[in-house]
Amino acid sequence: MLIRFFSPVGYTDYIGTFAVTAGLDSEKWVKHFTDQSDDYSSIMLKFLADRLTEAFSEFLFHKVRTQYWGYAKTENLSTEENAKRKKSGNKTCPGYPACPDHSEKRVLFDLMEVEKNCGITLTENYSMCPAASVSGLLFFASVLTLF
């Protein structure tokens, strides 16, 4: 079965890639806290780096929708609407339920030269280092707004 993912001629589609991290050097500090038997600081640092990474990826997606691609210039979602994914477009990240194949990260990393440009690396099993990192694809098909 053929499924059309993009709009017909005359409509604008967007596709982009991204990789973000808030975890550079965090492993060094996690090890330091662990070596000092300070499990609380170790856990809090990992938690903070993860949350900052997720927040920045959402902020980037917002900037893409409202400024860079500009297809949602007037978007003004409440925190609740944002949490319920009421925004237009799609952010898909390999390894998450919508895209469970982690090996796709290699394609993204090669395309964006992630190791060189922002210091995130991939393990042989496609885990990102630092762990507080996320990469993925951004999509918007204008035909979806017609329905």
Keywords:
Cobalamin-dependent Methionine Synthase, domain 1, 147 residues, 40% helix, three-stranded antiparallel beta sheet, 5 helices, single chain, alpha+beta, two-stranded antiparallel ribbon, globular
Polypeptide structure, described:
This protein is of the alpha+beta class. The protein has one domain: Vitamin B12-dependent methionine synthase, activation domain (Cobalamin-dependent Methionine Synthase, domain 1, Roll). The protein contains 5 helices and 5 strands. The strands form 2 sheets. A 3-stranded antiparallel beta sheet has the order 1-5-2. A two-stranded antiparallel ribbon has the order 3-4. Helix 1 runs antiparallel to helix 2. The model has no long low-confidence stretch (mean pLDDT 86).
The proportion of residues forming helix, as a percent range, comes to 40-55%
Number of domains: 1
| H/E element sequence | EHHHEHHEEE
The CATH class turns out to be Alpha Beta
Molecular shape: globular
**SS content category:** alpha+beta
Distance N to C terminus: 22 Å
Q: Give the CATH architecture.
A: Roll
pLDDT averaged over residues: 86
What is the name of the CATH topology?
A: Cobalamin-dependent Methionine Synthase, domain 1
The CATH homologous superfamily is termed Vitamin B12-dependent methionine synthase, activation domain
Biggest sheet, spatial arrangement of strands:
1-5-2
Number of β-strand runs:
5
Helix count from the secondary structure assignment:
5
- List unreliable stretches of 5+ residues: none
Rg value: 18 Å
Strand content: 15-25%
Biggest sheet layout: 3 strands, antiparallel
